[in-house]
Amino acid sequence: MRKLSYFVGMSLDGYIAASDDSIDFFPLGAEFLAWLGAEYPETLPTAARPHFGISDDAPNRHYDTIVMGRGTYRPGLAAGLPNPYAHLKTYVVSSTLGQTGDPAVELVESDPLGLVQRLKKEEGLDIWLGGGKLGAQLIDEIDELVIKSYPVIAGDGVRAFTGNFKPTNFKLERRKDFEDGTQVSWFSRA
């Protein structure tokens, strides 16, 4: 069965984006970016892949599907990228967006839990989850956390989990440190 993996970058104080959903305040060191391009190439937007030397036909290593909330989707849409991850099957969960701007991006206006439960039963690589509100809604379905912790304090913005107080235990599986202070930690559901 496929896993739902919340693969997310966050500040030391638990924010995954600024209040305007931007993430440009995260310090991205060269060593970390090289590792990300090699280990998780599918998590880079399609338009950015050539910059990292990733070919259009490069295989996805971990995920073949992304389920994201409106806030995670909106920055790509604003940048003129209605399908920022064209190399993944993309679902956007929103009851207010109305349309996605690309027929390959499926809008899910209700029941994200049902969507994820159905996707987990399908064949394929794991499912990448994106979004603080959506993460909180789907906390019972999250099998794995992959947290990219950047050495910065945000102070305010979008929290990693917003809107659902539900203490849930996870177990640290491994951690990778980078020279600039960035850490990537893998957790499995305890």
From TrEMBL:
Entry's Gene Ontology molecular function annotations: 5-amino-6-(5-phosphoribosylamino)uracil reductase activity
InterPro entries, alphabetized: DHFR-like_dom_sf, RibDG_C, Riboflavin_Biosynth_HTPR
Domain of life: Bacteria
Any Pfam family: RibD_C
Domain Bacterial bifunctional deaminase-reductase C-terminal: 3-182
Any one of the GO BP annotations: riboflavin biosynthetic process
Designated name of the protein: Dihydrofolate reductase
